[in-house]
Amino acid sequence: MIEVDRRTLLRAALAGSAVATLASCAQPVQSKSAPVAAGSSVDGSKPLEFFNFDGGYGKEWTTMPLDLYRKEFPKADVKLNSGQQLQQQLQPRFIQGDPPDLIENVGMDGATLAAQKQVMDIGRLLDMEAYGQPGVKVRDTLLPGVAEAGRYDGVKYEMPYVFGVGGIWYSKPMMEKHGWEYPKHWDEMLALCAEIKKTTDIAPWTYQGKFPGYLTNPMLMTAYKAAGPDLKKKVDNLEPNAWRDPALIAAAEGYQELAAKGYLLEGSQALSHTQSQTYWAQGKAVFIPCGGWLENELGDIAPKDLGMTMVPAPGMSKDDKAPFETVTGGPGGALIVPAKAKNPQGGIELLRIILSKQCMQNFTKVTKSLTVVKGASDGVELSSANKSMQAVIEAAGTNMFADWSWRLWYKKLLDNSDKAMAALMNREVTPDGWSKQMQNYADETAKDPSIKKFHV
């Protein structure tokens, strides 16, 4: 997975009215039966291993749930392992039949794991008793849409743990100081970039060049706003010539102009996520694309007065078919239990503990990101960054979708899209050439009988 970007985490959780607007398209199955007793099927003497993605959210948040598991099963040898290259680190262990018991999956091909039954159906977790809430089912503690997320062919293989939104970030004090107004359309964005370049020594944009998917996200959103929802359906379903849509080519032209006209911080195409984000926090660039984990990943690097603010990606023009407020957002992240784990029941039990209100509240405190559990932000002082994300979610209302499904379903296509985006921003291909490349990659995926296909 493009390291941090591939979380598709869209990642800040929100209770109350903003989340309620997302519920209309996700009606959870209600059951009046009593919760399933938890913990009784766990062998408390067995070792337990949790593999954490040590990225934007770090690993400090894992301490509480692991300690609670140790308290529940004092004889268990509980281990935490972490990494950032899960595909390389864990694929051999899956092949050898020795995967961890619970994995925070960022980078492995979730769709293939599900299709090959290498991960467990964890649907029964939803009807277990919520940890620390006697008589209450796990499903009844979750925000709308969470119980339905993480399913392939109707089976729940993944449990989201954060709830959020992706967009563009800027420093509000910087924008106010210069009298700049965030543009809603791309021609206005290019005009603002020209003004910034002419009147200051600040670069208009930077991005995580080594992980081009960070910039692919807003570019696709600009195209979506121009063309409307049918574009997403065609692209996700691998329809012929879907990537040849004029809206995608126009968006590619617009974003390539950032490089062509010198609107990128010099060397952005070669920067890592941490490098580009650090330069942005230092005021060397005005705009940067990222998910809701940005604040936590920056940590102490971010000045106290940075005033981090998230906004949606600009649309293409006043003729757009989807409103400016449209964003990708919703339940994100994927906690999975491998089918061949040595202690899968322990993995499910740890997952139940992680989803407890106390652990999710701790997650919010530690990572500055909100979660999928109702009320988990109660009593937690939220930053300006989180408040801006909430404002984006509230403004989007029903104009929010989880992500482009092809990015979740087809890992090879996702990897190839990174190559195409890098070529586009390095000006090695024209926007039309980028479109043709992406269509070729999509056609290869559609024709490959070894790849299981999904449809929206």
UniProtKB/TrEMBL annotation:
Kindly give the PROSITE patterns that the UniProt entry links to this protein: PROKAR_LIPOPROTEIN, TAT
Ordered alphabetically, the record's keywords are:
Signal, Transport
Q: Which family does it belong to?
A: Belongs to the bacterial solute-binding protein 1 family.
What SUPFAM superfamilies does UniProt report for this protein, alphabetically? Periplasmic binding protein-like II
Q: What's the protein name?
A: N-acetylglucosamine transport system substrate-binding protein
Task: Reply yes or no: does the keyword Transmembrane apply.
Answer: no
* Record flagged with keyword Signal: yes
Could you tell me which species this protein originates from?
Kribbella aluminosa
Q: Where in the cell is it found?
A: Cell envelope
